[in-house]
Structures are given as C-alpha cells and as structure tokens.
Amino acid sequence: MSTTTEERTTWVCDNCRGVTAADRKRCRDCGTSRY
User: Residue 9: CA atoms inside 13 Å, Cβ hemisphere, count?
Assistant: First the structure.
C-alpha cells in the first residue's frame, strides 16, 4: 500500500521516476504528462 503508482497525493513519472504532486499533470523534471 505504501509503494503504488496510484497515489492520492503524489505520482511517479514513468520516464524519469520523478515524484510529482497529484495536482500537477506534468512532470516538472522531464515534462512527461501524467496521462
């Protein structure tokens, strides 16, 4: 439950593995979209 990609508060980018806040739809590090 602690290690999931479907978090309520954050999500992990599939490209650079960067953690981004849930309210942000795009990764701040590489620019990859959440969807």
Answer: 2
Distance from C-alpha of 24 to C-alpha of 1, rounded to nearest angstrom: 22
Neighbours of 5 (CB within 10 A): 9
Please, are residues 8 and 22 in contact by the beta-carbon 8 Å criterion?
Answer: yes
Give the pTM: 0.55
The DSSP string of 1-33 is --S-S--SSEEE-TTT--EEETT-SB-TTT--B
Alpha-carbon distance of 34 to 7, in angstroms, equals 12
Predicted pLDDT at 23: 86
